[in-house]
Amino acid sequence: MRTVLITGASSGIGEACARVLASESNYRLLLCARRVNRLEKLRDRILDSYPDCEIFCFELDVREREQVEMALNNLPADWNSIDILINNAGLSQGLESLENGDTGDWDRMIDTNVKGLLYVTKYCIPKMVNSGMPHIINLGSIAGKEVYPKGNVYCATKHAVDALTQAMRIDLLEKGIKVTSIDPGMVETEFSEVRFKGDKERAQDVYKGLTPLCGQDIAEIIAFVLSRPAHVNINDLLVMPTAQATGTIVKRTS
Ligand code: NDP
Ligand code: 8X3
Description:
- By secondary structure, the protein is an alpha/beta fold.
- The protein has one domain: 3-Layer(aba) Sandwich (Rossmann fold), CATH 3.40.50.720.
- It is built from 8 helices and 9 strands.
- It has helices spanning 12-23, 36-49, 65-73, 103-128, 152-171, 191-195, 200-205, 215-226, and strands at 2-7, 27-33, 55-59, 84-87, 135-139, 178-184, 187-188, 213-214, 236-239.
- Helix 4 links the parallel strand 4 (84-87) and strand 5 (135-139).
- Helix 3 runs parallel beside helix 4.
- It is globular.
- The chain binds NADPH dihydro-nicotinamide-adenine-dinucleotide phosphate and 2-hydroxyethylsulfonic acid.
- NADPH dihydro-nicotinamide-adenine-dinucleotide phosphate is lined by residues 7-8, 10-14, 33-35, 38, 60-63, 88-91, 112, 116, 139, 141, 184, 186-187, 189-191, 194.
- Keywords: Oxidoreductase.
């Protein structure tokens, strides 16, 4: 059995990872996010299909360093050893040129996508050292490989994730921890609704006239990456919808 901690498991890619890994019989799931009621509903749905799956949910705002330290250092004794960390929690807020950007949005993105990922990773590493095949998976993005108009700060945070993935691979080499970056293009989740602050119509327009990826597509790739033998690590995996060539060049039918 491998114990996997998934941050941001209440929605989208994180939720899909929980469902897909639960469907394989060799994972125990530690699920966290701010909306713990969502996690509990997800846990109940998973248990309906896979009654033997072990799941522990807890509330976590990855931006709060002390909360992260407390939560990870006070896990129940039988959840204290972690094999896999999926650093998935993240968000984009706003799509504006820098001079019109909202500094609160900038703080939320930097605090969540960069500092939150760092805090969770720091307090998780000591729990991974006894694992037979420890693995950290960071959710990067096409936005961490290129910069697109008005993407400024979000792109900067995902470039930072790219740099931190490389840094982890170096720093954790001696500990034998695999580190992988999964870098998707457009995935239809709550991502655009969060970016556009609840404007559902604007969010739906992002995916209009094309078939985007879905959370399950990414989760299945992550399950594949995790299933490689001990001597194989997939460093970096960029995955796009067929209808997307770059961050902004897409083919729409209407
Ligand atoms: P969703 O909005 O559907 O899910 C985001 C998840 O992150 C939610 O579960 C949310 O939980 C959690 N989260 C956000 N802020 C915090 C916080 N402060 N503390 C803890 N959890 C938090 O989006 P996606 O599933 O699409 O996004 C998942 C990851 O994938 C992100 O890192 C995103 O940048 C990345 N990504 C997404 C792409 C896309 O097109 N959708 C493409 C490339 C990368 P809650 O609100 O309950 O805390
Ligand atoms: C999410 C994908 O292209 O909206 O990281 O930045 S994109």
